[in-house]
Protein: FAD-binding PCMH-type domain-containing protein
Organism: Tuber borchii
Amino acid sequence: MVNLSDVTTFASDLGVPAAGLQKIGELRATSGGTGIWQGIAVLILTLLFPNKTLLPDMAGYNASMSINWSLRAQLPAQAIFVPTSAQDIAKSIKIINFFSVPFAVRSGGHTPFPGSASTSDGILISLQNLTTLALSESKDLLSVGSGNRWINVYQFLEPYNLAVVGGRVPSVGVGGLTTGGGNSYFSTGYGMACDNVASFEVVTADGSIVTASATENKDLFWALKGGSNNFGIITRFDLFTIPIPNGKVWGGNTYFLPQQTNNVTDAIAEYQTNGQLTDPDAAVIPSLSYVPQLNSTVFMVTVFHASGQKPASLDPFFRAGPVSDTSKQRSLPEMAMEAGGGDQAALQPSFRNDFRTLSIGVSPDLYHEITALFQQTYSMNTTISSIPGFRVTLTFQPMAVSTVAHGKARGGNALGVAEKAQTWLCLTSTWALPSDDQATLPLSINFMQQIEDLAKAKGLFEPYLFLNDAAIDQKVIASYGDAQVKELVKVSKKYDPKGVFQKLAKGGFKLPQ
């Protein structure tokens, strides 16, 4: 049981001055109930970091809360802490630990559901000001503060004709994508984003600042590669760089009419059985969208090649006959902006969003059935047109055997992905009003369950769930496999014996207990 004497000693040890200790005593004397200790925790944070702690009535609070991409995730924390160093975070974790305060951690805030990178009870630690970018003298490593977004990283590296294995669109944060695995334009040739981390700087549950790498805290290093927010707060990623010939890549968006849908899915399967095997520098993001306002579907395939030249490996998509094509030679930052909708995407009003993922084997017949089901579920659903702002997109993400192999070559990761060609589906739903949650979310669940049933009937179901694209109710960590889960739990107990990141950081995908 916490008492005022222990609190005063604790606060003094952290550096709270005498005047601040008096404020703590006054607050305790005038308040009752167990909830007062959470208020005192916030007061101590404010006393130690007056310019880095945002309370609801302060300027900057609403702007920080609204960083979260999805309106569903914009929750009103009791305080938003905006640190500028690992040392700041270490102190905040000690406060959170001492008072058992619920908390959340946000890098870019792209997780669409509530509670992972947001909280309505306790403290949100927003990494938005941890934006260090520093290239090593040999230029083979880039140190990246975990508050960066991928567009900042790519723009920083552009003058050096370098890149890193990172996000495909500009606004996604470095932290969440990397610790969830991280699919990239470069993943066929270099593995997932998490497999391209040389070391992590991490604040653990007791407030220690440690390095996790292939030679130091190796078990924690492994666990952070896919283990998400279960082990500590990562303040810096040291990423391996990769060369970009002449500083240019090639790519853009190709568009197809509804009647061309089967041609596109056939091209996906052909690419997976041929081009993806022979050309590790190529990548595609095929996305089938239904827009009720247009009463139509559109298939957009983002095409990419690291060489800066149009490759033969992507010919199947061009033989399918795109009605529009923006592909050309461009810089990687320009490529990310193009894939993410350009500058106008940042100016669009916020919506409520949701992800849901599923993994399946490679099969043009199954792809045909999935797109037919998509049409039936959404295009033929007359109630959808009445939902303000509704839009739904099904993305096919071709994953190669080489992606998994690269991960193993770099010491392995926690993901447990089977070493076989497969497709990771991501269903992204968007709508405007909270009152429509109960219409949109069950529709997504039912649609993806039907795909799972189709895949199982054909022997093409894969148990792995890609964390970066998963919904709040999906059992992501369990999908990694029993052996992976057992090791993750072991690492958690070693670095977080009190379960701070399991019990107090409640959002996100927790370890199965």
